[in-house]
From TrEMBL:
Keywords: Membrane, Transmembrane, Transmembrane helix. The chain crosses the membrane at residues 42-60, 66-88, 119-141, 147-167. It comes from the Bacteria. This is Uncharacterized protein.
Amino acid sequence: MNLESAKQNWQQIDKDIPPLLPADHLEVRWSHPALRALRRQLLFEGGCWSFFLILFYSGLDGDQRPWGWTAALGLSLVLLILHAIVGYRLAGRPVGAMPLYQAMAEQIRTIRRYSWLSIGLRILTLLILFGFLLSYVPALWNTPRLWAIGTIVVWTAVALFIHYRLWRGRINALQTTLDELKA
């Protein structure tokens, strides 16, 4: 066999074997088991937030609280539901036609931005909830009742720390995978 016939055979092989994943297949949203678990989590969290959103007005005496706190709590809960939907769509986003390394690097950048939004939104909602619950406490700023504010600050700091550590672990795992792909 000479060099020219070997080159022709090699070029013919590429035409005869179909690619494992055609480019149009990469544009389709897949039904991965992790996405099903995320969908269940989204439905559960969305249902719980919706249930809380419906009941907080009468169950937590929302009609007797200042209107601003009630509106802020309602808006923050709606934003949490929308945030969960955006997270689900982000997880199921198709790769597209770009190379895998580039697509994964872009996904990590997007997840990093999403994580900061997630942390900020959850901490803001927690603070609004605490403010809503304490908005009807008479003489809150008296010295003996300042322990409530200190407790709120401590719980908020703990929630911030835990949420930050969870996101940092997820992003570090993705970054490790990206670094292995680069090597």
